Amino acid sequence: MSASSQVFSRHSPSSFSRKILLLDAVTGLLMGIALIAGKGWLAPYLGLPESFIGSAGWVLIPCMAMIGFISRAGSASNPPSAMVWITILGNVVWVVASLLAATVWFDPTGLGTAFILFQAAVVAGFAVLEYRGIDT
What angle in degrees, to the nearest 10, is found between the helix axes of 110-132 and 81-100? Predict the structure, then answer.
């Protein structure tokens, strides 16, 4: 079996799931910090209110701490499936909220729309990878 097929194999979910969850947690934490620290600078370029950008960043901090915990929880062979499902659901909610922010709640700039859609696509990708790693 090649290395790439092993990564996506359901026979080794623990390593794959844990790595994806940890990557989700780390990238989300970095995004949260960047949004909090850069809200004043980002707001005019993205066409989004500072309060929204900052709030999104603050929401990410505890969520990413939870995902980091989930990446380490459970048996030696696999993170708890129920906790992974909670993570997937949270990611789906984030994607839906992002789409609403880009199309209904606000009128972002072109750069703002691209930013929102890009990060939503990344989060959706994490949800798919986390789903693939669940031991079914």
Answer: 160
Question: How many Cα atoms occupy the beta-carbon half-sphere of 30 within 13 Å?
Answer: 6
Please give the Cα distance from 97 to 85 (Å, whole number): 18
Euclidean distance between CA atoms 102 and 9, whole angstroms: 35
- Percent of the chain scoring above 70 in pLDDT: 86
**DSSP type of residue 2:** -
What is the number of alpha carbons within 13 Å of residue 1 lying toward its C-beta?
A: 10
State the DSSP string of 53-117: HHHHHHHHHHHHHHHHHHHH-S-SS---HHHHHHHHHHHHHHHHHHHHIIIII----HHHHHHHH
Distance CA 39, CA 109 (A): 15
Distance of CA 11 to the CA centre of its chain: 24
Judge if pTM exceeds 0.85.
Answer: no
Q: Give the pLDDT confidence of 7-34 residue by residue, as tens digits.
A: 444 444 468 888 999 999 999 999 999 9
